[in-house]
């Protein structure tokens, strides 16, 4: 009796054996060249954020007034800012700030939206109607206006600036995601297996979390990647306005606030490189998100 | 159609009401009150009676419920109250700046249409050639590039460019003059922020124009036009473009509503004294009354513009009849 089992096991192992990583990468580049480029940018960013300590020998937060406004060169590859801090090292550490805020805000915002959207579709009726109206109200706020209003509200209560930015960015994402997820979940609600689950007497929570949520993973993942790019952009805007991440933390938007205009003539590199970093990061996440959308859900393909 | 308009107008009411409730109560969660903040900021000693007068002056001594009734009644009679920080009526503060922001928003929309339609058309006509790729790259970059950074770059180039060619650095003027008083001066000031925001907002419209036009170009009547030997230029301009602009109108309209939000950052870059800057200042100063009034103005504009876009849509396309 034991022999056939072993045979099946070895066959399964053959099947499960994955092609080498290089082959997968080549395949991705061929099918989704732009998405692969996006993924590459994202990976570079993650690499920068994780190994920031090893990539640069300059302290991103330490002022060194004797080194102010040094032009890009062999000593400081991207020059120094108005406090004598190395811009390259601030950009590398800025990737940490951007990624932490981007991922946390996108993940929490989209997940709350996922649960709310699926629940709204599942319960339907009056609950759904009221929920929809509440979401309508939220959707009537432009993203940055809502984020700024939230900064005003929580600004005095929340001491930690990064946490404050995360809160201000996360909340506007919830209705956005809830809406998209709800429309997918409405179709799933009518599926026979949901009826079956109900007939078996499962609890609402179990049906929502175990039976409906896994089936709306495609729009959910698409929203998460789209949100990361938006969150990075929003964080940069808030920090630029002086209402986001505070000095001396390295954040890209903050670096532009520092002295972009005043130092425009004497040290234009201060204004150029952090903006490039923001643009590349958002660009990467957008490209990757678009590719993910094409792969996961061709129907949602945007314009 | 008439019924539809009435229904839409009535549907706007709960949205606005909901937004008002949300804004009002959330802003009341801010701990500490503005009078204390202001007096402590002015220097040390805080006089209890002065505090009380200040609180009574801006109405935060009343119960929350009464404050809310005041707030709502203010909207009904278009009296938005006074700013907690400057002490001026909010209607006056907004009136000072509304014109500038509106002008930048309109100019930015025009700029984005002027960028989007030609580029989108070019991209669709030359589909899958290098021109198409360049245009698409240009528009994707527009979405990724923060508009405040583009603004900074524009200022940078203006400064360095004028320094190099004219011998002295030139900056756009800072003091606002209405366009009918001195058009040249006004435009030399506002064209830059309009370009910076317009480019960003052109990105989506460019993509929209491209895909809508591609779809229309596959229609039977375009094939007929080609078969009867019409010039390609006429086919595109007269037949295809007109029919593909419908979704573009929607996108541009919705973006106009979003522009009010986008201006918040751009106005800061160009140091324009508009609604966006006022909003940021009100948040920095924890000026409840001003913040809530401004949020409501933005939401109202947003809801109204969306409504107008829907009407425009129906008017442009006779096939759409809301009933």
The DSSP helix count of chain B reads 12
Number of beta-strand segments of chain A = 0
Tell me the total number of β-strands of chain B: 0
CATH homologous superfamily of the domain at 93-303 in chain A? MetI-like
CATH superfamily of the domain at 96-279 in chain B, by name, is MetI-like
Q: What is the C-level CATH assignment of the domain at 93-303 in chain A?
A: Mainly Alpha
What structural class do the secondary elements of chain A suggest? mainly alpha
- Taking pLDDT < 50 over at least 5 consecutive residues as the criterion, the unreliable ranges of chain A are none
Q: What order do the SSEs of chain B take from the amino end to the carboxyl end, as H and E?
A: HHHHHHHHHHHH
**Roughly how many Å is the radius of gyration of chain B?**
24 Å
Kindly report the CATH topology of the domain at 93-303 in chain A. MetI-like fold
Structural class of chain B: mainly alpha
Largest sheet composition of chain B: none
Which regions of chain B are unreliable across 5 or more consecutive residues at pLDDT < 50?
none
What's the helix-strand series of chain A?
HHHHHHHHHHHHH
CATH class of the domain at 96-279 in chain B: Mainly Alpha
* Strand residues, percent of chain A: under 5%
Please tell me what the overall shape of chain A is: globular
Main attributes?
heterodimer, A: about 300 residues, MetI-like fold, 13 helices, about 0% strand, B: MetI-like fold
Structure, described:
The complex is a heterodimer of chains A (303) and B (323). Chain A has 303 residues and is mostly helical. Chain A has a domain at 93-303: MetI-like fold, CATH 1.10.3720. Chain A contains 13 helices and no strands. The N and C termini of chain A lie far apart (58 Å). Chain B is mainly α. Chain B has a domain at 96-279: MetI-like (MetI-like fold, Orthogonal Bundle). Chain B is 77% helix and 0% strand. Chain B contains twelve helices and no strands. Chain B has helices spanning 2-27, 34-42, 48-58, 64-76, 90-125, 130-144, 147-165, 183-217, 220-227, 232-269, 275-284, 288-316. The relative contact order of chain B is 0.14. The model of chain B has no long low-confidence stretch (mean pLDDT 80). At the A-B interface, helix 6, helix 7, helix 11 and helix 13 of A face helix 1, helix 6, helix 7, helix 8 and helix 10 of B.
């Amino acid at each position: 009796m034991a022999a056939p089992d072993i045979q099946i096991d070895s066959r399964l192992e053959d099947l499960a054996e994955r092609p080498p990583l290089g082959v997968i990468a080549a395949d991705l580049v061929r099918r989704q060249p732009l998405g692969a480029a996006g993924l590459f940018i994202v990976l570079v960013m993650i690499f920068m954020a994780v190994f920031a300590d090893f990539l640069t020998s300059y302290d991103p937060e330490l002022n060194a007034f004797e080194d102010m406004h040094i032009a890009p060169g062999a000593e400081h590859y991207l020059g120094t800012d108005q406090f004598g801090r190395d811009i390259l090292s601030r950009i590398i550490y800025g990737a940490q700030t951007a990624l932490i805020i981007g991922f946390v805000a996108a993940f929490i915002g989209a997940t709350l939206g996922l649960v709310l959207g699926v629940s709204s579709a599942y319960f339907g009726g009056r609950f759904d109607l009221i929920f929809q109206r509440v979401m309508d109200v939220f959707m009537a706020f432009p993203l940055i206006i809502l984020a700024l209003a939230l900064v005003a509200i929580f600004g005095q209560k929340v001491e930690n600036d990064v946490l404050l930015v995360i809160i201000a960015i996360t909340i506007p994402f919830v209705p956005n995601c809830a809406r998209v997820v709800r429309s997918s979940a409405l179709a799933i609600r009518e599926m026979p297996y949901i009826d079956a689950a109900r007939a078996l007497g499962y609890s609402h929570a179990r049906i929502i979390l175990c039976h409906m949520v896994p089936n709306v993973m495609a729009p959910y993942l698409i929203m998460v990647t789209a949100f990361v790019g938006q969150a990075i952009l929003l964080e940069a805007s808030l920090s630029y306005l002086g209402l986001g991440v505070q000095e001396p933390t390295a954040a890209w938007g903050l670096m532009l606030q520092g002295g972009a205009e005043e130092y425009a003539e004497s040290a234009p590199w201060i204004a150029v490189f952090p903006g490039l970093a923001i643009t590349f990061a958002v660009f990467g996440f957008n490209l990757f998100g678009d590719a993910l959308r094409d792969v996961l859900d061709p129907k949602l393909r945007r314009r | 159609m008439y019924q539809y308009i009435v229904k839409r107008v009535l549907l706007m009411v709960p949205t606005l009401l909901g937004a008002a409730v949300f804004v009002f109560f959330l802003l009341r969660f801010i701990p500490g009150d503005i009078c204390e903040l202001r007096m402590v900021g002015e220097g040390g000693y805080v006089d209890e009676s002065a505090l009380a007068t200040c609180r009574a002056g801006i109405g935060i001594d009343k119960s929350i419920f009464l404050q809310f009734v005041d707030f709502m009644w203010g909207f009904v009679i278009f009296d938005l109250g006074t700013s907690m920080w400057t002490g001026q009526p909010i209607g006056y503060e907004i009136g000072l700046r509304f014109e500038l922001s509106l002008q930048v928003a309109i100019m930015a929309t025009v700029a984005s249409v002027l960028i989007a339609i030609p580029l989108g058309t070019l991209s669709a006509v030359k589909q899958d050639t290098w021109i198409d790729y360049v245009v698409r790259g240009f528009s994707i970059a527009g979405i990724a590039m923060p508009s405040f950074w583009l603004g900074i770059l524009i200022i940078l180039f203006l400064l360095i460019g004028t320094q190099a060619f004219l011998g002295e650095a030139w900056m756009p003027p800072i003091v606002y003059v209405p366009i009918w008083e001195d058009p040249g001066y006004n435009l030399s000031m506002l064209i830059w922020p309009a370009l910076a925001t317009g480019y960003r907002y052109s990105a989506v419209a460019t993509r929209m124009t491209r895909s809508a036009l591609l779809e229309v170009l596959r229609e039977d009547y375009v094939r007929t036009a080609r078969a009867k030997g019409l010039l390609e230029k006429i086919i595109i301009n007269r037949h295809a473009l007109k029919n593909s602009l419908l979704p573009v109108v929607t996108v541009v309209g919705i973006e106009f509503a979003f522009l009010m939000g986008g201006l918040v950052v751009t106005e800061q870059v160009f140091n324009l004294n508009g609604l966006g800057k006022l909003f940021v200042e009100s948040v920095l100063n924890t000026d409840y009354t001003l913040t809530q009034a401004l949020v409501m103005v933005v939401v109202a504009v947003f809801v109204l513009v969306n409504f107008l876009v829907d009407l425009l849509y129906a008017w442009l396309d006779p096939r759409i009849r809301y009933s």
